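Problem 12. The chain below contains 449 residues. Write out its predicted structure in token notation.
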Amino acid sequence: MLKSLPQISWRWLLVGALIALLGLAVACGDDDDDGDASPTDAPADTGDAPDDTLDPGAPLKIGALLSFTGGLSDFGEPIFNGVELAVTEINEAGGVNGQDVELVRGDTGTNPDQAATDAQRLVDIEGVQGIVGALSSGVTLRVAEQVTGPAGVVLISPASTSPGLTDANDNDFLFRTTISDAAQGLLLANLADDAGYGTVCNIFVNNAYGEGLSDAFTAAFENLGGAINAAVPHEEAQVTYASELAECEGADALAAMAYPESAGIFLREAIEGDLFENIIFVDGTKSTDMLDKLGWAEFDGVRGTAPAALPSDADSSFEERYEAVYGDFPQLPFIKEAYDAVYVIALAAEAAGSTDRTAIRDELRNVANAPGTVIDPGPEGFAAAKTALAAGEDINYEGVTGPLEFDSAGDPAVGAIEWFHVDAAAEEFVQDKLWKVDLATLTVEDITP
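Solution.
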């Protein structure tokens, strides 16, 4: 739920006007650009933060900077529900430092310019001490390097999988609860090899996510003896992708490394033109909305990969709690990762005894990493964490997605990737295999339930 703005001075009215003008400029520009940022693209300096954001005793306020519009809009609202559920549960357990957590929405538009402007609003006007987001890797990178990193505000992405985020210039304020595409690229290559595809064509969205996944898959697939007959970047919101598809002629399979809006266009063209015998999906194309529009029957049996949760009792109980509030649990990735991101921010603030932004950052690894008293997700788990922290104990949050062991770059040290296929009759994605991945060594283990 959006929170109303506090009483502000004339100085902040001017800041608000400046941000509004920036937003208007973005709206009039190319809203599908997700490329790399340049220094001239940085949002304008909006001055000092309001006094209440500097008060270490202020209530914890978390921003949800997600894609409610744009290429990843299919994912925005369900992922926000995961964020909102976490905030609700934490407040049921007494909140953080004796005060309710507040939640503020922000919309990236799946666009780095819009995201940077709205992130600046969350930081400077709303006074958030932490942000969950963004979804697109290119958007997250822009926000981390130009807004949250310089401002010293924790940014935890539940969905940005590009390996490039590991080396972001973020002053150690960027974390993520999803596994890097260094892992997905490896398991995608193994899936293609398992399916017997000798040559694959990658059509990938021209941003950090698409390029990173395509590169990781290409290296791993070629190492297995496969060949990439073409790796074709594409821009978003094109009317047709005929020229990109033409570059893939002769491939055994098309790997659709894209977002639902764009993939929906070139996959329709591929099906109508009977261009490929085989198609491979990834996390970005694991979209029920996309297949509702295209027709499930056309994609029956299509295989793919996506980040997934490690098996745990917390996983099933989370889905039950989600469904009690929001209805059927969506067949989408990253909802659980967003939920876990809220919990670690809140636990870090509780451990710090403060909502000071740097203090929260400094406690993130302490509350997420072993050793310590194991803390489960949910209101009972959060209440137990508060008791343990008050007694001077270390805690170790074991999330819905599994252990969250943040490494020195803010990445999870371990995670899971699933192999899935499309069941057209049931209109669902069915998990076939689950792989545990150690990111430090890129070793995999089959942990299929």
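Discussion. The chain has two domains: 10-178+334-366, 181-310+413-446. Students who got a different answer should revisit the alignment rule from Section 12.3.
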